[in-house]
């Protein structure tokens, strides 16, 4: 009975997974399409974790005498899927608020060099297990006018992707510098790269390259669209350069605002 239960849970997850993985990416034509697609994609993305959580919970309820130890794998699945769902909901909320202009930046002057140093330190700890080197090249000081927590969020998205899509023993390089008119941050990696034909869709909501693989790596396909919103809100640009198998390079460029304060 328990085998049938586990089997049906796994089957539901596989079915929903394949359903999502198999959907072809169609370019968006207009604002109405965009809105409809956002709602449809959000529902599909939420359906997977909800189905898995329901199936696993039904399974647990079927065997009330089983110990937590015995069911720990099933409980771990519930935890993993609910964590994924919270992240998805948080990202959806950010995008919905940004659409309705409810998100305001809280700008101040802060040290971008300190933020880059902090984040690379944190990511170095995460990169140890994959034996990935993270190299930081920094111009100091690097004062910046903007919303520090949003800029951190943006850099976390880029570093997180670099780490996710770079296999073991790879390399991530981060640099930050300023010129007379711009502040430039580059995050590049020696990872799997992005096929040229995918580059135009990269910043679209829910776009995931290799869908089944990205989902396995915890991706929701919302990271880069949030990154783009943060960059736009700061009056900057984000550019991706990549080739399959040749790593990726993301360049952020911001105007140097409020020069008196910098
Ligand atoms: P996800 O949550 O899937 O990572 P993102 O919006 O952050 O969503 O990225 C969209 C897609 O862009 C990813 O699914 C992946 O295919 C591709 N991508 C982003 N960053 C990188 C990178 N550094 N190397 C390779 N592919 C990347």
TrEMBL record:
Record key words, sorted: ATP-binding, Coiled coil, Kinase, Membrane, Nucleotide-binding, Phosphoprotein, Transferase, Transmembrane, Transmembrane helix, Two-component regulatory system
UniProt GO MF annotations: ATP binding; phosphorelay sensor kinase activity
Domain Histidine kinase: 41-258
Enzyme Commission number(s): 2.7.13.3
Keyword Chloroplast in annotation: no
Membrane spanning stretches: 1-21
Location(s) in or outside the cell: Cell membrane
Record's bilayer topology term: Multi-pass membrane protein
Reaction catalysed by this enzyme: ATP + protein L-histidine = ADP + protein N-phospho-L-histidine
Any one Gene Ontology cellular component term annotated for this protein: plasma membrane
Keyword rRNA-binding: no
Protein's name according to its UniProt entry: histidine kinase
